[in-house]
Amino acid sequence: MDNFFSQKLLFPILFLFSLVVFLLHTTYTKTAIFADARFYYMTTRSIMKDSDIKFANEYKYFNMQPVYTNEDYVWNKYPPGVSFFWIPAFLIADGFSNLIAGISVPSGWISVDTSGYGIVYQICVAASSTLLGLFGLYFLYQLLRDYFSEKISVLTSFTLFAATNLFFYIAVEPINSHAASFFVSSIFLYYFFKHEKDKYYYLTLGLLGGVAGLVRTQDALILIVPAIRLLLNRKREFNKLISYFSQLTVGAFLSFL
Questions:
Q1: Could you say which of 170, 186, 203, 239 would form a disulfide bridge with 251 (CB–CB 3.0 to 4.6 Å)?
Q2: Dihedral (Cα; 239, 245, 248, 253), 10-degree rounding
Q3: Could you tell me which of 46, 84, 68 has the C-alpha nearest to residue 184?
Q4: b/e map 160-199, b = 16+ CB within 10 Å
Q5: Contact yes or no for 214/79 (Cβ under 8 A)
Q6: N- to C-terminal Cα distance for the chain?
Q7: Which residues, in sequence order, are CB contacts of 53 under 8 Å at separation 6+?
Q8: Interior CA angle at 235 toward 232 and 241, to 5°?
Q9: Cα(118)–Cα(96) distance, rounded to whole angstroms?
Q10: Is the confidence at residue 170, as pLDDT, over 60?
Q11: In this structure, how many other beta carbons lie within 10 angstroms of the beta carbon of residue 64?
Q12: Start-end of H helices in the chain
């Protein structure tokens, strides 16, 4: 029974379980790219397949009305953070799809979608989001281990996965920004609590907070946490207060840049 409460067992099981749930759900829905996922996905697809950020053809594929900001440019108002996280998985899917297509075309024995929308792409991107979400959960588990036993920490991590929206956005609809948002926020909290003595502590927190805001704009508010710590702990040290606030701001700016 104790083996069940081991992080070495929990996280691989959650990954396999999430992948199975995703595949079953996608089999039922026929596609994993719908609702907000279309906007996040079109950024990845446009960068990798078209080498641009002109989304007219992606809007057409998804049968959506494009919004033009000026001639020949279609706006995508959704932040691109998670789209960047998906690029490695998309690249793997594209290489695999083109390899299979190249092998099968001469004989015509199989048809593989290499347009960037096919099921191979969807599975790879979804698996990468699932991994991001579970890595975020793992960082929270590591924080919990500083205060509680492994059994309690594992049980709490499992409960967070099973009894919150994490289950939906890690297992059911991982092609969205939420798993990546959770991942970045978890790393931020892990670094915030465990690396206060690092030389570039506030610069790093700024960088992480900027990435969080790039994934979901409102997540940039996480920078309020170190800002409050600064005001409480350094209010009588004006030079350090200005220096650390500057590092925090520059880090966030560089992430967006």
A1: 203
A2: -110
A3: 84
A4: bbeeeebbebbbbbbbbbbbbbbbbbbbbbbbbeeeeeee
A5: yes
A6: 49
A7: 43, 46, 47, 76
A8: 105
A9: 12
A10: yes
A11: 14
A12: 7-29, 37-45, 56-61, 81-85, 87-104, 119-144, 150-163, 166-167, 178-194, 201-215, 224-233, 238-256
- Residue 29 tokens, joined: 């829905």
**pLDDT value at position 3?**
57
The pLDDT confidence band at residue 111, using thresholds 50, 70 and 90, is: confident
Q: Which two tokens stand for residue 252?
A: 């966030």
What is the CB-side half-sphere exposure of residue 220 using CA atoms within 13 A?
17
Mean of all residue pLDDT scores within the chain: 91
Q: Which residue is it, tokens 């960068």?
A: 47
d(CA 126, CA 93): 11
- What the block records as the tokens of 232 is 């409480």
For residue 125, the one-letter residue type is: V
